[in-house]
Amino acid sequence: MNIVIYGTGGVGGYFGARLAQAGNNVTFIARGKHLEAIKNNGLQLKSVNGNFLVKPANATSDISEIKNIDLILISVKTWQLSEVAEIIKPVLNENTMVISLLNGCNNHDVLASVIDKKHILGGLCKVISFVEDYGVINHVAYEPTIVFGELNNEKTERALQLEKVLSEAKITNELADDIQKEIWTKYLYITTVSALGALTRSSHGEMIASPYIKNMLFKTAEEIYAIAIAKGVNLPNNIIEKQFEIIESLPYETTASLQRDIMDGKPSELEAQNGTIVRLGKELGIKTPINDLIYYTLLPQENKARL
């Protein structure tokens, strides 16, 4: 399969390397010194599941150089998604699939506002990995997983083909029966832990160890769950307990990418996570006091990072 990884960070770098390792024609979209290192030295994957060096690695900053693309996996930051949609629009052919692996609950809507909806599948991923150095991706925990599906949940031929490609690359994957349920399940987890981790400057383990902060995590999740149910998402009533089982099973020092970005003074996905819950709460008439507190307390730092 001819695959483009748009955004070669911890997420795109990991899955792109595994897809290339399986023999797919993978092109990495990167920039700056990261791009230069990938071109010169290949893309090095360090992983608890086994290391791999993609060399030579196809890499460019200009997607217009690539023809006959079968699949574009987008793994940038949420605030960049609309811009990326505009950039990829000219290279889409009749059969190109586009999947966003970003954190967020409405990425497919953002894509559909720019490109034809026929190209879009819903998607998400689960992985703890990061750019260790230019050209080097480090996967440190969690079984890397891609969950995807047609927006109408049909098991189409192209979805089944992608399932086969991912499986042959030994990437744990799930062709979802209800992709909205899966997206919101991941969204509930990541929005519960990320910004509160930034606000408290604490790891998952440290937050869980504090009864007061753990209770804040629960209340954050309860507000997200209420929004999801109001929007008609079919989340089970024990979803919060299930997500906390996952949180408590992760390494004590686990942190989320949003948290690391805020703590490093970088722009973050605050708006796509807790900010979206605040906005949807206002639209739906649902009170979200804990998400309000988290969002508005971090917003001045977020605005400063974007100057």
Automatic annotation (TrEMBL):
<dbReference type="InterPro" id="IPR013752">
    <property type="entry name" value="KPA_reductase"/>
</dbReference>
<dbReference type="Pfam" id="PF08546">
    <property type="entry name" value="ApbA_C"/>
</dbReference>
<keyword id="KW-0560">Oxidoreductase</keyword>
<dbReference type="GO" id="GO:0008677">
    <property type="term" value="F:2-dehydropantoate 2-reductase activity"/>
</dbReference>
<dbReference type="InterPro" id="IPR013332">
    <property type="entry name" value="KPR_N"/>
</dbReference>
<keyword id="KW-0521">NADP</keyword>
<protein>
    <recommendedName>
        <fullName>2-dehydropantoate 2-reductase</fullName>
        <ecNumber>1.1.1.169</ecNumber>
    </recommendedName>
</protein>
<dbReference type="InterPro" id="IPR003710">
    <property type="entry name" value="ApbA"/>
</dbReference>
<comment type="similarity">
    <text>Belongs to the ketopantoate reductase family.</text>
</comment>
<feature type="domain" description="Ketopantoate reductase N-terminal">
    <location>
        <begin position="3"/>
        <end position="152"/>
    </location>
</feature>
<dbReference type="InterPro" id="IPR036291">
    <property type="entry name" value="NAD(P)-bd_dom_sf"/>
</dbReference>
<comment type="pathway">
    <text>Cofactor biosynthesis; (R)-pantothenate biosynthesis; (R)-pantoate from 3-methyl-2-oxobutanoate: step 2/2.</text>
</comment>
<dbReference type="InterPro" id="IPR013328">
    <property type="entry name" value="6PGD_dom2"/>
</dbReference>
<feature type="domain" description="Ketopantoate reductase C-terminal">
    <location>
        <begin position="178"/>
        <end position="298"/>
    </location>
</feature>
<dbReference type="Pfam" id="PF02558">
    <property type="entry name" value="ApbA"/>
</dbReference>
<keyword id="KW-0566">Pantothenate biosynthesis</keyword>
<dbReference type="InterPro" id="IPR008927">
    <property type="entry name" value="6-PGluconate_DH-like_C_sf"/>
</dbReference>
<dbReference type="GO" id="GO:0015940">
    <property type="term" value="P:pantothenate biosynthetic process"/>
</dbReference>
<dbReference type="InterPro" id="IPR051402">
    <property type="entry name" value="KPR-Related"/>
</dbReference>
<dbReference type="GO" id="GO:0005737">
    <property type="term" value="C:cytoplasm"/>
</dbReference>
<comment type="function">
    <text>Catalyzes the NADPH-dependent reduction of ketopantoate into pantoic acid.</text>
</comment>
